[in-house]
Amino acid sequence: MVLITGLCTFLYHLPQIYKWLLKPYYVSSLLMTVAFLAVRKAPGVCEHLATQREDGNSCDFDWRETEILMFLCAIVMMKNRRATCVMTCKPPLYMGPEYIKYFSDKTIDEELQKDSRISWIVEFYANWASDCQSFAPVFADLSIKYNCAGLKFGKVDIGRYGEVSNRYKVSTSPLSKQLPTLVLFQEGREMIRRPMVDKKGRAVSWTFSEENIIREFNLNELFQKSKKLNKSRDLKEEEQ
């Protein structure tokens, strides 16, 4: 069952992985790696290469080259942990009730600017990030308590939509620790962002608890103001 789930996840994200890998940097790196291995193992060519092996066999890797390859493999795994997690990590486990609208790269701008009277609290997340999975029930509970006509909750998977990540300046790098990121939008403009980001592009330490979010985003006050929009809509409907 685990193998089937992993295979299905891999096939589902295959177009995204191809798009991510088909960049000049990765293509050139792959070609150089294959060329190095081919030259090292090619008969008639490898005999003329220098080696530090005691047996003088230049067609096999020496200890120095083996150490370099192992070190590079470790670096690649650390830097590209996002791609590895796309294929291996499980999606968020939370399946409870929520009043959240899920955006794509084509709908987020339109929704945020559609009605200037509506405030949006948007979570930028990635399925592979464990912090985002842990925060999912907290954000869902807030959406149930505070959702109204003038205050909406939304989410966008920037692990899937890389253009949204660049557009709203939310880094998906594990080193930046910016996932998840909550942003309050009013009249289509960003008003509050948590966690904040320092000059080096790293997130300032902040706890994603329900109490902190209510206090930092002034949810109680914002909710009372947003309910007035709901009442005005009801009055218009009654008049019509």
Automatic annotation (TrEMBL):
InterPro entries: Thioredoxin-like_sf (IPR036249), Thioredoxin_domain (IPR013766), TMX2 (IPR039101), TMX2_thioredoxin_dom (IPR037463). The keyword Lyase does not apply. GO terms for molecular function: disulfide oxidoreductase activity. GO terms for biological process: brain development. It is found in: Mitochondrion membrane. Residues 94-231 form the Thioredoxin domain. The keyword Ribosomal protein does not apply. Keywords: Membrane, Signal, Transmembrane, Transmembrane helix. It is a single-pass type I membrane protein. Coiled coil: none annotated. One of its GO terms (cellular component) is mitochondrial membrane. This is Thioredoxin-related transmembrane protein 2a.
